[in-house]
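Sequence design from tokenized structure. All designs in this work follow the same two-part layout: the structure record, then the generated sequence. An example of the structure record is given first.
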């Protein structure tokens, strides 16, 4: 199907042509026939890089050009910003905004945008606030909708869909999914037309590697000429042929270890495989940007030889440099953890799956699901560069070859299973439904939840009765915590309950926060950190010994049992204490094994949960605790002592390091800076004339308007 045949606005067609899109890919043409441009609900279950996102973008822009609003939901904040970049191709045609944080807001200003990119949680939160502009929404795209099977986030997606159905919005759903076992069931539940296809822009060959050979599923095999460990040989072999490799492994430490081994092999290869001038320039750039010099040096060393590792410990800016370097062909091999398979769009000629098992702290060793294997394998083959993509799993013994072939290459992708009717998900979403005004009685709650996939999948004969009793139990627990009140069959949210729903808190976490705040004898920084960190959302620091001083401080303020959980939380408190006492990122990495990328996760979560705890303190009348929780939260966000808050929160271009320099040189307030000369500030370490000028201008403006 030619682009020009589509009944789309001319301006949209010319943008597509400019982007090099002339004909639709076969699955895209099928989606058009299914009515994706006529406002129909469509579930697209097609291969990686088959053009799902492009189609959903076009449908969103089309809606906008027709005067409606489109919401585009993605699973991660970082992806939301990436999406924004994609939408920038449509230039002046539409106004596109991103909304990912601050759950306690109905974001009225979003009305100004034609397309709003949101995270799942933000979208659910917006639906709880029910801003007036919701009625203008005509298209809702849910990217990576297979997250429906995720134990926690799946329930968020179900709840979003149940709310949209309940509101009776005349909005079209577009679900974009990786291949899943029960796509038909999911499409039936959504009431959507299903487009399933395994078509790929670059054909894929899948195989298992053992003893120097790749055994492909079509019965053919090929010898791998390079030597060394399996992953090293597979990577070097493809680079020597002018291709690139993406190696997936199961732990952060093995990403670095394997990257080093591959870098050594590339350097020792008889012919030159990389452009040293380019790799060294990129290595320098990485070293400059990296806030941990330890990690920066380790990465730069391999990048200089055309190899990189990529994992959640790297900060976003560094990850982007690696991804960009790989796309440009400067980096030949990236070794990544499996957790990044879904988020990173980095195609390579050969994808190597080094481990099909991983370690889970709860269940121990486990095999990765087929879905995850398929997502990694799907990255093989760069459109325009490779004639064929290859996905290779590494077998550790001869016996494994057949097993891996059956289990993964020929295996069925798992079904998506709902988790919304399980505690604590049900409690969270019952409160969300009542607090957001979607249900006011047990009957209405039953009706609301009968729109979920969980209900759709439960056994027909008993389902209503079972659902009712589960809901009643959830309501009872929420009433015990003071978030709901029951009057016969009617259910009301208390003021506190409404706030908990609006703050997007798990009710159990909120109840715990409230208990802690009420029982606080006298607040101190360690105790406030402890309270906020008890939320199960935070990863735990497990490294090192428990800091006695921190324990004393916490126990001075709170009555808590010193069990294993306590120890883990206290270690995490000690890590954040170091951060807000202005310890260097490298010190935090060495002492707690928390890398800059991990630190960012803590900071983002604290921004939400610390502020939420402060608001709860305010609602229950604990003003002093509210104020101090706010201060602690701001300190975590900026990584500073309290005395620097004025500078870091008001001046653009001033982070924790520069603020400390200014302070130590006697510029302690915005007023001090407003009085300074450009020359004085420019001469401080880490400042230049341009920055000094900007800071002084900002400071003067602030003083004038205060
Ligand atoms: N019809 C087309 N003609 C040419 N290029 C296209 C076409 N459709 C999409 N593309 C390009 O192909 C690439 C992959 O498309 P897209 O990201 O939409 O795929 P996807 O199925 O969403 O992939 P993923 O599963 O990784 O999210 C993009 O660079 C996109 O611009």
């Amino acid at each position: 199907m030619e682009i020009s045949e589509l009944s789309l606005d001319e301006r949209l067609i010319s943008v597509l042509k400019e982007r090099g899109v002339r004909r639709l890919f076969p699955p895209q043409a099928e989606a058009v026939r299914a009515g994706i441009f006529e406002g129909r609900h469509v579930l697209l279950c097609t291969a990686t890089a088959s053009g799902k996102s492009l189609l959903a973008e076009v449908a969103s822009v089309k809606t906008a050009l027709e005067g409606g609003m489109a919401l585009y939901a993605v699973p991660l904040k970082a992806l939301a910003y990436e999406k924004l970049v994609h939408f920038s191709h449509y230039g002046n045609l539409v106004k596109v905004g991103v909304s990912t944080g601050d759950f306690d807001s109905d974001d009225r200003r979003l009305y100004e945008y034609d397309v709003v990119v949101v995270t799942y949680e933000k979208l659910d939160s917006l639906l709880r606030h029910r801003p007036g502009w919701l009625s203008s929404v005509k298209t809702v795209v849910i990217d990576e909708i297979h997250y429906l099977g995720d134990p926690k986030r799946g329930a968020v997606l179900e709840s979003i869909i149940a709310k949209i159905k309940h509101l009776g919005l005349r909005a079209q759903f577009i679900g974009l999914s990786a291949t899943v076992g029960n796509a038909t069931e999911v499409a039936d539940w959504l009431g959507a037309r299903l487009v399933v296809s395994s078509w790929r822009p670059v054909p894929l060959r899948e195989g298992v590697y053992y003893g120097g050979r790749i055994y492909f599923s079509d019965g053919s095999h090929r010898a791998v000429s390079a030597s060394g460990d399996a992953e090293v040989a597979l990577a070097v072999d493809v680079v020597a042929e002018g291709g690139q490799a993406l190696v997936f492994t199961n732990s952060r430490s093995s990403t670095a270890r394997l990257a080093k081994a591959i870098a050594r092999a590339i350097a020792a290869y008889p012919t030159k495989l990389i452009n040293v001038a380019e790799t060294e320039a990129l290595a320098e750039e990485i070293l400059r940007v990296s806030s941990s010099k330890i990690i920066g040096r380790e990465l730069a060393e391999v990048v200089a030889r055309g190899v990189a590792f990529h994992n959640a410990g790297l900060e976003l800016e560094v990850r982007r440099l690696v991804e960009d370097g790989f796309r440009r062909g400067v980096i030949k091999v990236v070794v990544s953890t499996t957790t990044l398979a879904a988020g990173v769009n980095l195609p390579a000629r050969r994808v190597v799956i080094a481990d099909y098992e991983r370690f889970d702290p709860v269940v121990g060793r486990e095999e990765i699901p087929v879905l995850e294997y398929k997502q990694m394998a799907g990255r093989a083959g760069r459109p325009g560069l490779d004639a064929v993509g290859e996905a290779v799993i590494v077998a550790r013994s001869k016996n494994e070859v057949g097993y891996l072939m059956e289990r993964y290459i020929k295996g069925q992708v798992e079904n998506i299973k709902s988790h919304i009717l399980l505690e604590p998900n049900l409690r969270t979403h019952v409160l969300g439904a009542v607090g957001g005004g979607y249900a006011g009685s047990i009957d209405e709650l039953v009706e609301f939840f009968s729109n979920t996939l969980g209900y759709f999948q439960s056994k027909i004969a008993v389902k209503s009765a079972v659902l009712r009793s589960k809901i009643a139990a959830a309501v009872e627990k929420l009433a015990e915590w003071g978030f709901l009140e029951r009057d016969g069959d009617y259910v009301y949210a208390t003021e506190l309950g409404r706030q908990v729903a609006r703050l997007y808190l798990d009710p159990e976490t909120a109840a715990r926060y409230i208990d802690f705040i009420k029982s606080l004898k006298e607040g101190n920084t360690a105790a406030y950190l402890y309270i906020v960190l008890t939320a199960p959302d935070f990863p735990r620091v497990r490294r090192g010994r428990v800091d006695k001083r921190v324990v004393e401080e916490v126990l001075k303020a709170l009555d808590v049992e010193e069990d294993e959980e306590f120890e883990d939380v206290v270690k995490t408190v000690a890590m954040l204490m170091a951060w807000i006492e202005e310890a260097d990122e490298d010190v935090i990495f060495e002492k707690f094994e928390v890398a800059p990328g991990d630190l960012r996760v803590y900071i983002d979560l604290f921004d939400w949960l610390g502020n939420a705890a402060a608001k709860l303190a305010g609602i229950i009348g604990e003003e002093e605790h509210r104020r101090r929780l706010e201060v602690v939260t701001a300190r975590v966000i900026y990584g500073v002592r309290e005395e620097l808050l004025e500078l870091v929160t008001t001046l653009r271009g001033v982070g924790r390091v520069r603020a400390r320099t200014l302070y130590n040189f006697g510029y302690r307030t915005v007023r001090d800076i407003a009085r300074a000369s450009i020359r004085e500030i420019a001469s401080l370490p880490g400042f230049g004339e341009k920055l000094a000028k900007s800071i002084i201008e900002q400071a003067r403006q602030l003083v004038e308007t205060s």
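The pocket of adenosine-5'-triphosphate is lined by residues 20-21, 24-25, 28, 48-54, 345 (CB under 6 Å). We note this feature because it recurs in several other targets discussed in the main text.
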